[in-house]
Model the fold of this input.
Amino acid sequence: MNAQPEQLLENNLIDQLTQLGYQRIVLNNETEVVGNFKRQIEKHNKVSLTETEFKQILIYINKGNTFERAKTLRSRIPYVNDLGENKTIQLIDSKNWCKNEFQVANQISMKGNYDNRYDVTILINGLPLVQIELKRRGLELKEAFNQINRYQKHSYGAGFGLFQFIQLFIISNGVNTKYYVNGRVKDRSFKQTFYWADKENELITNLPEFADDFMNPCHLSKMITQYIVLNETQKALMVLRPYQYYAVEAIINQVKTTIDYGYIWHTTGSGKTLTSFKAAQILTGIPEVHKVVFVVDRKDLDTQTAKEFNSFSKGSIDSTNDTKTLVNQMTGSNKLIVTTIQKLNNAITKPYYLKAMKGLENERIVFIFDECHRSQFGKTHEDIKNFFKGCQMFGFTGTPIFEPNAGTNEYGKRTTEMLFGKPLHKYVITDAIKDGNVLRFAIEYIRTFKQKDTIEDIEVEKINEPEVMNAPKRRNNIVQHILQNHKRKTHNKEFTAMFCVSDTDAAIAYYRLFKEAKEQGLHDLKVATIFTYTANEEQKKNKDYIADGEDEFNIAAESDTPYLAKYKREELDDFIEDYNKMFQRNYSTKDSSLFYQYYNDIADKVKNKQIDILLVVNMFLTGFDSKTLNTLYVDKNLQYHGLIQAYSRTNRILDEVKSHGNIVCYRNLKEATDTAIELFANKNAVGEIIELPYEALDQKLQEKYDALVTITPTVDSVNTLQNEEEQAEFIKAFREVMRLINKMKQYGDFNYDDLPITHQEFEDYKSKYLDLYEENKGLHKEDDKGHSILDDLDFELELIHRDEINVTYIMNLLVRLQAAPQAEKQSQEKMIQDLLNSDIQLRSKKELIEKFIQKNLPLIADSDDVIEAFEDFVEQERKEAIQEISKEEALDQDKLEHVIGEYLFTDKQPLREDIVGLMIQKPSLKERSTKIERVTHKIYDFVNTFISGFVR
Done:
């Protein structure tokens, strides 16, 4: 019998890994995995463990979640030997990463609440640290990702939980191969899986080539021990992407082998902070390096970076609150320091500090400059270089300064290369978009007024007169346009937006307009603003800005007379007071500390989607990362690096719904946009970076719709599809339609009336699509050998989920249905039925809601009582349902409720032993598996029906 393609892929990979130096081992079950772990850990530590000693180790390491076990993996494990002596062993050698024991096994069987058999497992010192899931060629890679999620829910925690030590997952269908780090299933997105690449950013996707490069034992062990970061704040693992790895390696090599400078050109949004942290962390371990100093150019970034660095490695650094603190750290034992360029400049130029700093002049100090396009081009850079004669300087930037965008100061035109030397590694925006590490931009240029003597709109590219741009009517039109389109742009406020304007006068005017509109009941958006009110907003290009007072919040503002500065400060205080009332805070501009706290609070609230629109002049347009921000409204002249930096606030990867960053321009920025893209990518890159215009997407939709109706000419024809192959073709075709509509909905021109598919037709097809999903979701089909081909398709349910349609929304419709005249009840009831059929979250509650409509709603006299009656009804049904499950399956009801509570808390389906523990009478071995699967399925359905979505 010929080997199946997937089996052939597996066999070839194992042969290749064996040739790379892995020991091939056969492990059939957990007992054999544990036995092998004992032998390998003894070999690695050169000890012989008795069963009692080994049991202590097993008990010690079998605790905590994936994050806690990752910390355990990197620490020494204590035990007491049979002589009563305290001993420790090492699970992995992180310093000498090649000196570990490497094995490969396949088809290990584990019993959790399902029997799972894993494709290929790599063990280091006997611990399973890398899991490889293979799918045959032609299948979607995401199915391998989904399969691993099922394993993690169903069986990784079984027994001694050794599989919870897995650090990396690798998924492949032979032609496409990706890797990603272990973590909580509910936090995991396919968007966070990565391709490997070479130093030139050429992807390595073919499995044999990937195995040679990435899975070489030394390299794989190095990735695990050196290039996985344990984020203490998020309690999550983070693995470096290939370009981050090559950048860190290049800096380390430069320090070890030369005294030359260099810079890293990595596009905005590609994870610069993680890269720079890892470089700094490794450099502190080089004996010849006296200190590593990470330099930022704003006080807010000083604290932000220190916070992020400490999240990567708890207690690794303290930020410097003032120059005195910096001097103490520079002359003390601190190996890694984060500070601002302003404080560093003070430390080496002010006579008060020079005596203490003098002893550092010739020390080997490595400076890493954050965003080296901003503040490194004047006297400060020369001062640092001249004072620290033994230093090496490295810069990070997403937008280097080249000749065309270089400003002029007393040293002439200065480019990044003039100050830092050659780039050590490049990863430009086109690389990041190609790899799926940042999103493209969808840019709309909006006409904002009309000529007086004609009815024809003036093209936005042709306008720039200040009196026109600042006209109150124009600004009011812009605010109205934002209010009309904001929910569309942000997927009904699932994401947030930023609005950048030309100056503080504009910020004040726009904030007032938003506030007036809210007072008139025209919107319910939470709008906040922040700007400074003291000197010097429009700095000369690239000139250093060193604040006189180092506690000042060093983002400049408009140059004003004292009267105007006072006026703007009073306005800002009024706006901050609005913020205080909205969020029960107590900020003001009375001192820099309170203002700084205000800044940080705004940053947190934007990231957590508590602010809908943040109105800014310069603040937040660089150095601020928020995955939940997807839209930038622009009424400000931007160019070169400033334009790319501002646009890039929107293009962080999050999930399938966030398909691109929205840029809405109310100014003539098309030429500036094209020029900036050409400078920081290449002349032909505009089409790669900017999303297609609406008209082109509409044309693509017509093509995809034509393909759909070729397969299923009508909605009803979905019912007549003959086999799974035809159903799969329909699923793929409709999925393409969904993807395009998801993008098009965010454009201002979107209207179902203009599409080839009507809104009703789309909803009807979606209902059929969900029917197929429900029929084939394969909850209990865990044997993936010979499973349905529909299980290998990703239904991309994220695109169907609609936040505006939820249980609360349906409850409000029930209120309207109760109060509706008799003649309208039938149509309103049909609308509810359609929603129940078309929304993935509500389908599980369809029977429950229909029962309420038929039996309970007619008995309610007052529509004000509907919501309370519905909640009482659901609670009663929930109690009856849990009693019914307990009775039908002979389960202990109290224990059942406890298991359901644990499931909700941990997001992990109960294990087999948990289900067996519920049973009042234990079934025979023959019946046990069937009953466990049946009970698990009922628990899953119960949670979906009565709990998920009912949090109001």
